[in-house]
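Technical note accompanying the year-one report. For the benefit of new consortium partners, we illustrate the data format agreed upon in the data management plan: each record pairs a sequence with a structure-token string. No post-processing was applied to the example shown here.
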Amino acid sequence: MNPRSNAATVAAEEPAEEILHLVAAIEGSRDFLVAQHDLTPANKVLSLHLHELVAYATKVETTASHVGALDMLRRGGVIAAIRQVCQHAEAMLELHYAAHVTSDSASSRYGVSARERLLSFPYIDHYFDLALAERDAAGVGPGRTIVFLGGGALPLSAVALVYLELLERMGLLDELRAILLLSGRSDRITALRTLLMTVPVCADPHGTKVRVVERSSTVCSRARAVVRALGLDPQISVHEGDAESFIDFGGCELVIVASMLEFKDRVVQSLSRASSLEPRARVILRGVEPDTLKELFYEPLTDPVLQRALRAGGLEYRDTVLPPLRSSRLNSIEVFAKA
């Protein structure tokens, strides 16, 4: 698969042969992925394939042929099979980098060594791009409390939210925006890493607080170790528990629901009923634009059960934010307000 260009439009219908060609290409990707026994970053062939698949999914223009192919692939279970492998590989990647960040973290009193390791994460730009879009969409200012449901072993989103506030205080947020718009991915990541290394690593006890919720005790332990290694434990806390039963939303102005979190309908119902979540607090659901190749990685927010939960009340729709044209970001977001 070769990258072409990204757009959120559907072009005029193309010949059926193009649909069959796309179906065959994506089925071939499925066959390769499900045959992999090692889903860790040690499998370099797999890592390269996934990197190319991400590039293709974010750069290709969505046409009528893609919509037709996706419909066939969805009904045949191909998209679900690819998504399952991709998400498992993503979890393995996070576990790998969580261990990488915390190795020898004591070698630097202020965690600079750990920060350099964190910034070597291959999709670091995606996380900062998404966190910035969410912060802008929710209108969250400095010193606020954010709850992130489904943080994983490498709580990069929480880290990004803290760093965004620090960059804003340093007057560097516009520079970050410019960097994230760079067309060359290598240049973008290099510039981003250079910028983030200029941020003082000392946590601000009066700054943004992020409560990360994760159900696995093992994953929580890894995430806490990462936060400590980065010196951000005064601002980022990790809580063990199911997202749908979490109730500690006191003082929270924004809740973010991760893309890979299961049972989003239950989470929405819980948030709608949560008495500790103040009226007008913002809730962001991460997903992907439907009928695009980004569905290979995450579910769009079109599941009928989820939609029924959203229509049941408690959360009021505010906005949908798609990735900018030619962005390398997979995720789109939907913004709601607590009624």
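Partners are asked to follow this layout when depositing records. The chain has two domains: 16-102, 112-338.
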